[in-house]
Every structure is written in structure tokens, then in C-alpha cells.
Design brief:
This protein is mainly alpha-helical. Helices cover about 65% and strands about 0% of the residues. It has two domains: about 200 residues, Tetracycline Repressor, domain 2 (Orthogonal Bundle), CATH 1.10.357.20; about 190 residues, SLC41 divalent cation transporters, integral membrane domain (Tetracycline Repressor, domain 2, Orthogonal Bundle), CATH 1.10.357.20. Strands 1-2 form a two-stranded antiparallel sheet. The N and C termini lie far apart (about 50 Å). InterPro entries: SLC41_membr_dom, SLC41_membr_dom_sf, SLC41A1-3.
């Protein structure tokens, strides 16, 4: 997106405390960097306080809550503006969200475990293979939506009825266009994998991919597990009998149309329900004085997986009963025409027209990165007990924490690029960016302990103390890396004139797949070398 024009007295840099400067350079050749209209620019009053204001850290103010901007519209103000009051708000808002979404992954994993054993779906391999692909691509779309709307809320655009309607309707329309594209791509990927499987060894039980659902909060590693199950190199990760291999249909045009129709219908329905839910959540957060950057990214990831999986499962089940009818083809053609019409509507909406061409390559790059990670590291999954469960906290939770920081950083850059510095009256002590990172690091620690206690209490896994101690250490390393990656990736995209709300989250999620799984494997290896019994019975 283009960069905003600054008034001559505006600061041209965003200084993140104790980090390198991130330039926000005016660019008159572009209309604006911020995705919404330039009317949000606020003219700076010539009060002669420019030199004083230049010393403030606008990036940090935007990172840490209210008071970071002045807008003529209604702006909820939280009680208490001090440094520690804002840190308290950050802890209060992120802790329950991260805890609930992390536990929600367990139920999502169990749901996939159940769905993957439905005989109707198991007769067509592609209906199982498409699940992780759809969850990967669709999950990133929902997180991008939450980041865009959080930015709009935090800079005050959702406070204006005339722009709120355009922004919300435009983003929901854009989501439907994106959902139609990614669902068709997912069907193509599943079809290709199905053709490869037809010429390879007998696939492992779908329970393999079912248990790996727990690995990632954004469900990108579900795709990895599905690919690994297709390779036939792994046994089932739980003692469940394999599904019967007889009676499955060989993939053909009819199966492809059915899978494409199921994926497109599911993504369209999921986009309507989840997109509306996320819009409502962010508007309510704004109205109640909560920062949507602290709430929406984990919710988008968890709710997106659960709702999309539920809808996709039942829609796929219905499609197995209409497979031989013309209905799947009619659905594909009809949804494609609707998507084209919606794309035209998005193009005519000044609030979102520029988003139509943005953010595509990170979605597919993230899928490729996650696939490579799964093929490389999935060999270790069958060797260690409780691998899939432990991976939730060492991969999914750091990824969610990093997503929060990405969303906050992106909001900070957008806010600093379009607003003036607060007046002397508004000046309050604000925590540094490093303190934000430290706070997020500390927030996740008790959640991790609660999760470990939860799975131990239910008897899902029993691991020695040596492993638990190293797991805690490696978890903290994973969170630290997630936060550093969030900062580096967000700054990189902003520097190259790419909106972090559209580009950063998919790449961050995929890279955390690599980091989280690598650290978890290292943790098991170190504990094993120290004599801890962490290997599975089969290994």
C-alpha cells in the first residue's frame, strides 16, 4: 500500500525502544499506506510543540493501548493510563483468550480424529486430504481479517458509521472472494495428492493426521500430518485399527468436482458465520474499551479451525450422497460466478479495492513451508510419546502470542503513519516495546503450565520430570523466537511497502511451525540422552 503524506512537522520515524529505528517515509506517489481512506488523516494544529512531540515514541504508544491517537470521533478510554496499568490490561485481555483457544485446539483435534474415521468420507481419499489444506489456507485468511479490522478499530475508522459500514461489508465481501479461490486451490492440491497416493504404498490410517491436528493453533501442521500419512512411512500415532482400504474410489473428474464443491461451499459458509463473528467481536471490543489486537488473532485461529472443520465435515458428508448428481457441478459454477460478482463489488469499494491483489503469495508460501516442515520432521512423531499433545504448547501457543504481537506492531505502524503526536496534556508514561515482549512472554508461561497439568490430570500423557523441565525451557525459547520473528517480519514488510496485516501473519505462522517442531524434537532428543523414557512403545 502506498505511504501516507506527512505534514512537515510530523515525525518520520517510529522508534521502538532499544531497537533499531523503523522508518515511516512519506511517499507522495502513493495515496496512502493505510488500507482505508485518507480522510482519517488528522491535520496537526500549528501549536509550536513539534520539537517536544518529536521526542515521543509513537510506535510504542500505539503498541500499548489507548491514548496513542487523537481522533474527533468517540474513543473509549480505559481507566488508568500509566505504564503498569496498561501492562495489566495487556495481561487481563490476552490471558483468558490464549487459555481458551489453546484448550480449544484439543477439541478440534478430537473432532478431526472422529471425522477422519467416518466411513463415508474415507471412501474418497481427497475428502480427508482436503481438510488440513483448507484449514491452513482458511485459517490464515481469518487471521488476516482480524488484523485488518483491529487496525481499523484502533485508528478510529470503525467509530465512524459511514466508514464502518463500508469497511465491514467490504472485508466480508473480500473474504468470500478469497475463500472461493483458496478452496478451489485446496481441492486441486488434494486431487494431486490423491493421484500420487494412488501410485504409492498403502496410506497410513487417517488417525495419523487426526492426532497431528493438535500441533498448530492455526492448523497449518494438519497439512503436514496429512502429507506424512500419505507417504506410508508412519504407523498410526494411537492404537486404533486402520480403516479398510477396500471400496475406495479412484480419483477422477467426478471426485474432483465433488471435493471442489464441498470445499467451496464449506469455505463460503464458514466465511459468512466466522467473518460476521469476528467483525462483531472487534466492534464490541472497541465499544467496551478492549484492544482487539489482544483478543482477535488467537480467537480467529481457534474458532476458524473449529467452525471450518465442523462445516467442512458435514458438507462433505452431504456431498457423498449427491456425488452422482449434477448438484456439485452446479454449486461450483454458481459459487464461481458469485465470487466474480463479489470481486467486482470489492473493486468498486474504495475502502478495500486495493486489497484484492494483495496477500496472495504469503498464503501459498506458508502452505509450502509447512508442508516441507512436516515432511522433514514428521519422522520423529512416531518415536516419542505425547508428541502431538505437547506440540500444542510449544508450537501453537507461541504462534498465537507472536500473532498478537504482529497485530499490535502493524497497528502501531499504521497509527503512527496517519496520526499526529499527542499533546502535552495527553502524555503519560508508556511501557517500552521490549516490556511488551516481556509481558507476552510471561503471560504464556502459566498457560503452558495449566495445559501440561490438564493433559496429565486426564491421563493423556505421563512424562518424566527431566523432560518437563526441558520442555518449559524450550517453550520459553519458542516464545522469544516468536516475538522476535514477529518484530522482524512486520518491520520488513512495512519497510518494503507491504501491509503487515495482509502479509505478516501467514509467514510468521509457517516459520513458527518450523521453529516449534524443531525445538520440540530437540527437547525430546536431549531428554532421551539424559536417560528420560520419552520414546513411544512402538519406537
Amino acid at each position: 500500500m502506498g505511504k501516507l503524506e506527512h505534514s512537515p512537522s510530523s515525525s518520520d520515524t517510529i522508534e521502538l525502544h532499544q531497537f533499531e529505528d523503523v522508518l515511516v517515509t512519506p511517499d507522495p506517489d502513493h495515496v496512502h499506506r493505510h488500507p482505508y481512506r485518507q480522510s482519517s488523516l488528522i491535520t496537526e494544529e500549528p501549536d509550536g510543540s513539534d520539537e517536544e512531540d518529536d521526542s515521543l515514541d509513537e510506535g510504542e504508544r500505539a503498541l500499548l493501548g489507548q491514548g496513542r491517537r487523537r481522533v474527533p470521533s468517540r474513543s473509549p478510554v480505559r481507566p488508568g493510563h500509566g505504564t503498569w496499568a496498561q501492562v495489566k490490561n495487556l495481561v487481563v485481555e490476552t490471558s483468558p483468550t490464549l487459555l481458551i483457544t489453546t484448550l480449544g485446539l484439543l477439541f478440534t483435534g478430537e473432532l478431526l480424529s472422529t471425522v477422519s474415521h467416518w466411513k463415508e468420507l474415507s471412501r474418497v481419499d481427497e475428502l480427508i486430504m482436503i481438510i488440513p489444506v483448507v484449514l491452513n489456507l482458511k485459517g490464515n485468511l481469518e487471521m488476516n481479517l482480524s488484523a485488518r479490522l483491529s487496525t481499523a478499530a484502533n485508528i478510529g475508522e470503525l467509530d465512524k458509521p459511514e466508514t464502518r459500514r463500508q469497511i465491514i461489508i467490504g472485508n466480508l465481501t473480500l473474504l468470500q472472494v478469497q475463500a472461493a479461490v483458496v478452496s478451489f486451490v485446496a481441492a486441486c492440491v488434494a486431487f494431486i495428492l490423491g493421484r500420487i497416493t494412488a501410485h504409492s504404498h498403502s496410506p497410513a490410517s487417517p488417525a495419523t493426521s487426526a492426532n497431528a491436528t493438535l500441533v498448530n493453533a492455526t492448523a497449518s501442521l494438519l497439512h503436514d500430518a496429512a502429507l506424512a500419512s500419505l507417504s506410508g512411512t508412519l504407523d498410526a500415532r494411537v492404537p486404533r485399527p486402520p480403516l479398510p482400504q477396500t471400496g475406495k474410489k479412484i480419483s477422477g473428474p467426478q471426485e474432483f468436482i465433488m471435493v471442489a464443491s464441498a470445499a467451496m461451499c464449506s469455505c463460503a459458509l464458514s466465511g459468512v458465520f466466522l467473518g460476521s463473528f469476528m467483525c462483531t467481536l472487534i466492534v464490541l471490543c472497541r465499544r467496551w474499551g478492549l484492544d482487539p489486537d489482544n483478543v482477535s488473532p488467537p480467537v480467529a485461529g481457534c474458532m476458524g479451525d473449529m467452525l471450518t472443520l465442523s462445516i467442512l465435515s458435514f458438507v462433505s458428508l452431504l456431498h457423498t450422497r449427491i456425488e452422482t448428481t449434477p448438484l456439485p457441478l452446479i454449486f461450483v459454477i454458481g459459487l464461481s460466478c458469485i465470487a466474480i460478482g463479489l470481486a467486482v463489488a470489492v473493486h468498486r469499494n474504495p475502502q478495500v479495492t486495493h486489497l484484492l491483489r494483495q496477500g496472495w503469495w504469503p498464503l501459498f508460501a506458508a502452505m509450502i513451508i509447512s508442508n516441507g516442515t512436516g515432511l522433514l520432521l514428521d519422522t520423529f512423531v512416531s518415536r516419542y510419546q505425547g508428541y502431538a499433545l505437547i506440540a500444542v504448547v510449544i508450537t501453537g501457543l507461541p504462534g498465537s502470542i507472536g500473532a498478537i504481537f504482529v497485530s499490535r506492531l502493524s497497528t502501531a505502524f499504521h497509527a503512527a503513519a496517519i496520526t499526529i503526536l499527542p499533546s502535552v496534556v495527553d502524555r503519560k508514561p508508556h511501557p517500552s516495546a521490549r516490556l511488551v515482549m516481556t509481558t507476552l512472554l510471561v503471560v504464556g508461561f502459566p498457560i503452558q503450565l495449566v495445559f501440561l497439568a490438564f493433559i496429565y490430570m486426564f491421563g493423556w500423557v505421563h512424562l518424566p520430570f527431566v523432560f518437563v523441565a526441558f520442555e518449559v525451557l524450550f517453550y520459553l525459547i519458542a516464545v522469544a523466537i516468536a516475538l522476535i520473528l514477529a518484530k522482524v517480519i512486520t518491520e520488513y514488510f512495512w519497510k518494503w511497502d507491504l501491509d503487515p496485516d495482509m502479509y505478516a501473519l501467514p509467514i510468521h505462522s509457517a516459520l513458527m511451525d518450523v521453529v516449534g517442531q524443531s525445538l520440540l524434537v530437540a527437547c525430546f532428543e536431549v531428554a532421551s540422552l539424559l536417560g528420560a523414557k520419552v520414546q513411544s512403545l512402538k519406537a
